[in-house]
Every structure is written in C-alpha cells, then in structure tokens.
Specification:
- With 297 residues, the protein is of the alpha+beta class.
- The protein contains 3 helices and 9 strands, in the order αβαββββββββα.
- Strands 1-9-8-7-6-5-4-3-2 form a 9-stranded mixed β-sheet, with no helix packed on it.
- β5 and β6 form a beta hairpin.
C-alpha cells in the first residue's frame, strides 16, 4: 500500500483541524482567555490611583454623578478643608500647571526682576527640579496636589506638599503675630485666621532659595504674601493671593485659581531624584538647555 506523501499528510491535518475547530475552540476559550478588564480611570500625571474601599479614584477627567455634595462643616458650622470625616481621604489638585494658571496680568516688575523673569523663562533652572522646597504660590502648582490638614484642638493647619521635596508647611491659627526676628525659610512664617468661610494666611520670612511660581516671579527676602482659601463647593477650592515685595515690584498685585478635590488619594512615597529626566537642571551647570520638549515636575 502506497503511503501518502509528507505534503499530503500535512494538508490532511490542516483540514482536520479546521473541521474540528468550531467544537474545540468554544469550550477552551473560557480557560485560555482572561475576562475583559474595564478601562482604568485616567488620573493626574504621576499620582497613584488612590483606589480603596470607596471604589475607583476620581481621575483628572472624571465627572460627578448624582446630586452635588454639600461643603462639609464641623459641628460649630465652620467649613472643613479636608474630607467630611477623618476616614475620607483626598488632595487638592491644580488645574493646568503650565501657561498662566495663576491668572497673572500686568505684573508690576522692577527692571531687574523683569530681566530675571525672562532669563528663567528661557533656561528653566528651577530649584524644584533639584528637590528644593517650593514656597508661596509654587506649592499649589505641582501635578501631585497638596493635602490640607487642620487640627482645631492644636490651633494649627498644615499643608503637605506631596510631590517634589515632600515637605510640609505650618500655619499658626492661635492668634499670634509674626516674631520680630525671623530666620528666613522656604515656607516662611505663616499665621492664619478665619474670615467667614475663608481661611486667610499671612506669611513673611521667606528665603530667596526657591521660585515662588513656575518661573515668572522673582522675589527677595522682603516678600510678604496674603493667601485666601475658600471652599466654594465640595470639590472646588478658590485660591487667591496677594504678593507684596517692594524690592522686586513697584506695587502689590493679586491673582487667583481654582483647586479641585481628588477623592481617595493621600500622601504617598515619592523619590524626588528617582527617574528624574531633568538631569541638566539638577547638576547646576546653569547652561542653556533645549526645553522644546515639555517636562512638568
């Protein structure tokens, strides 16, 4: 009996497999293929999802569902700046952090300050990229957000800067005044009080080792800021500021931006130097750097 050729056997096996496939594939499909996973929510750059028992974290483009929640308040009726309960976590995120997020217009520079602002815009040698603390307005311009913790029993409020230097700022709410002799620091000396539903913060004693925004605003150790935090809705905080630095500007100026509440996210481990793609800015060579490719630390 003549055996079929090797090519004939191959064709026969292929035909048999094709004939049997409708019966074989269907029962095996449930074993070999994992069930489809739902799309993960989008989140702000570099921020963990923050998902927990409350479900998925709200992403940067998420929308509220159901009726809007009321602004949380203490039993005394005063507004809370965090979650409605100690178990409710969340951080305050900025909107876009590039462009003109603080709504600055007609900044009254002194000539030297205008020239320095132009140089910063061209070279972007910002201390924040080298893990330095970011005082004043810059604290609210990172894509990681800030966590505001108020301790009424201690008459203190704390603002935790999550990204970058991973530091915190203390606001004294006990009615004290600024001390006469201050050692300048990155966050300065802050005292605060409540004006209705607005927390007002007065700060002096800044050092000159940071940029107080993302590069447009030089300052000196004469800097004095007034900041106002007003929770206008459960998910919205209005942030207003007044800058007064007579050594850098011809007069005080103001601006504002909105912060948004991102539920489910809290402080997380952050290595400032790890995977930092701005090596030229960290080495302190102060050379002109091609910044046509945007990096948002």
């Amino acid at each position: 009996m003549q055996m079929p050729s090797r090519s004939g056997v191959t064709l026969w096996l292929v035909a048999a497999a094709a004939f049997a496939s409708p019966w074989l594939v269907q029962p095996m499909r449930g074993q070999d293929q994992a069930p489809a996973q739902p799309a993960r929510p989008t989140v702000q750059v570099g921020v963990p999802d923050g998902r927990g028992r409350g479900g998925p974290a709200r992403g940067a483009g998420a929308r509220e569902t159901g009726p809007p929640r009321a602004v949380p308040r203490y039993a005394t009726g005063r507004v809370m700046l965090g979650g409605a309960t100690p178990a409710e976590k969340g951080v305050w995120q900025p909107g876009p952090v590039v462009g003109n997020p603080l709504g600055m217009e007609n900044i009254p520079y002194q000539p030297w300050a205008r020239a320095l602002a132009a140089d910063r815009d061209a070279n972007e040698l910002e201390p924040h990229t080298r893990c330095k603390a970011s005082g004043a307005l810059r604290q609210f311009l990172t894509p990681y957000g800030v966590e505001i913790l108020e301790l009424p029993e201690m008459q203190r409020a704390f603002i935790f800067d999550i990204g970058g230097p991973h530091t915190f700022r203390t606001i004294y709410m006990d009615g004290r005044s600024h001390p006469n002799n201050l050692t300048p620091t990155y966050y300065g000396h802050s005292i605060g009080w409540w004006d209705g539903d607005t927390m007002v913060v007065d700060t002096v004693g800044y050092n000159e080792g940071f940029w107080m925004d993302r590069g447009r605003l030089p300052h000196t150790d004469a800097l004095h800021t007034i900041e106002k935090f007003t929770r206008t809705a459960f998910n919205t905080m209005k942030y207003e500021y007044t800058v007064d630095d007579p050594a850098a500007y011809t007069k005080p100026f103001t601006g504002a931006m909105n912060l948004r509440w991102e539920a489910g996210t809290e402080l997380f481990e952050y290595q400032c130097q790890q995977a930092n793609y701005a090596h030229e800015l960290m080495l302190g060579e102060y050379k002109k750097v091609d910044r046509t490719s945007l990096i948002v630390p």
